[in-house]
Design a protein that fits this description.
397 residues, alpha/beta, 9-stranded mixed β-sheet, 15 strands, binds adenosine-5'-triphosphate, binds magnesium ion
């Protein structure tokens, strides 16, 4: 008996004018994600169908669980729209299932002669006759057997799985994610991807004060994020000179505030260069001195780009929970120093004043340094590790 994975779009369906674009983007994302599997994917306005080989089901579902824009999915039996074939398929679908059940019919094809409620009742009767161990409970059934009747085929399933939700990556333009080796920024990246945003990552590096291990950590985190998007360009910014200048020329307590203002200035330059429309980072209100609302306001004032802070209102424990879910936590807690941690002053200012920042920043020619730094950025293109074997597509096409 043929089985097929049915993908339902959910939130996409509210995007009337854009629906086609959203569905096409999701289709391409699924195709890319399953490119090494012998599958056949088709789509219509309300769902997608993935035909697969039985032995690949688990791997395919694991991949589907990493694609944004999928509301629910089901593994359904596909049968010709023919009453006796539907009946025997329903029997098959109830194999190994015990207790109470109800049948729920959706009849998208109105030329099918029996109305939905009536057909559910008839099917229920047929199933009870053949499975005397089962009972019907229309209010609180252990199992709901869904029968979706279309023109040519009917789909029968009893389990509905939730996908990741959100919008397909690529339905929004590009943003630049400030990716440190910490816990918060990969989670921020994940949440931005969930809204369909394409991401490049930017890592500020302070060699030799930071190690190449710290850089590798950021590469590993980018790889993890690539589970949810096809690839990420990681821009590595040589930040040492600016950090050293700040350390030498500025009030120590203002060191972090000014460093972050420099980061934002560089982000704005890179956004222009890489055609990105927003900055995304892992700031969380009140987490550290540079993330009080006063600090955010003073730091943010160097740019008029939107700065998206997906974890701004989450507690650290909530962020950690998400980091564990997306499997970045174990990498994030590796001990390598970050450029921020190295120059941290004893008493960073909690409520910085803009005039103080401007006064300190006048002590060195940061514009010139930024020009040099932007020219020296190294970019690496990162993809998720290939786990899926290359297979021939012939058997299904
Ligand atoms: P995280 O917040 O990711 O756990 P962190 O706590 O070390 O790392 P913070 O000092 O909280 O970082 O900085 C706030 C945000 O600024 C980070 O979430 C990240 O988006 C950005 N950021 C900090 N350091 C860097 C860096 N070296 N490169 C790129 N972005 C950085
Ligand atoms: Mg943080």
């Amino acid at each position: 008996m043929d089985r097929v994975i049915l993908i339902k779009y959910g939130e996409l369906t509210t995007k009337k004018g854009n629906r086609k674009f959203f569905i096409n983007t999701l289709y391409q994302n699924i195709q890319k994600k399953l490119k090494n599997m012998p599958v056949k994917i088709s789509r219509d306005i309300s769902r997608m169908y993935i035909h697969f080989r039985d032995e690949d089901l688990e791997t395919i579902l694991a991949n589907i669980n990493q694609i944004f824009g999928i509301h629910t999915y089901q593994v359904a039996y596909q049968v010709e729209t023919d009453i006796s074939k539907i009946q025997s398929t329903c029997l098959l679908a109830l194999d190994g299932i015990h207790g109470s059940f109800k049948v729920e019919t959706k009849r998208s094809e109105k030329s099918f002669p029996i109305p939905s409620t009536e057909f559910s009742r008839q099917l229920g009767g047929f199933l009870l006759k053949n499975r005397s161990d089962l009972t019907v409970d229309v209010h609180h059934p252990d199992t709901t057997l869904c029968v979706e009747i279309l023109k040519e085929y009917t789909y029968v399933y009893s389990k509905v799985y939730y996908g990741l939700g959100g919008y397909p990556v690529g339905t929004q333009p590009r943003a630049l994610l400030m990716l440190s080796g910490g816990i918060d920024s990969p989670v921020a990246g994940y949440l931005a991807l969930k809204r369909g945003v394409r991401l490049d990552a930017v890592y500020f590096e302070a060699l030799p004060h930071t190690s190449l291990e710290a850089r590798n950590k950021v590469i590993s985190l980018s790889k993890k994020l690539c589970q949810y998007t096809d690839h990420i360009r990681l821009h590595i910014v040589p930040f040492t000179k600016i950090q050293e200048e700040i350390y030498k020329k500025c009030d120590k307590d203002y060191g972090i505030t000014i460093m972050r203002r420099m980061m934002y200035r560089i982000m704005q330059r890179l956004a222009k260069k890489y055609k990105a429309l927003a900055i995304v980072n892992g700031e969380s209100i009140g987490q550290v001195a540079s993330q009080t609302l006063t600090s955010m306001q003073v730091i943010n004032s160097v740019t008029n780009m939107p700065v998206i802070r997906p974890v701004a209102c989450l507690d650290k424990l909530e962020i950690i929970e998400l980091a564990k879910k997306i499997d970045t936590y174990d990498i994030s807690i590796l001990p390598y120093e970050d450029c921020c941690t190295i120059f941290v002053p004893k008493h960073p200012v909690i409520h910085p004043r803009l005039e103080e920042c401007l006064k300190n920043e006048a002590n060195f020619d940061y514009e010139k340094l930024i020009d040099e730094i932007v020219d020296q950025v190294i970019t690496i293109s990162i993809t998720a590790e290939e786990k899926i074997e290359n297979e021939s597509f012939d058997s299904l096409l």
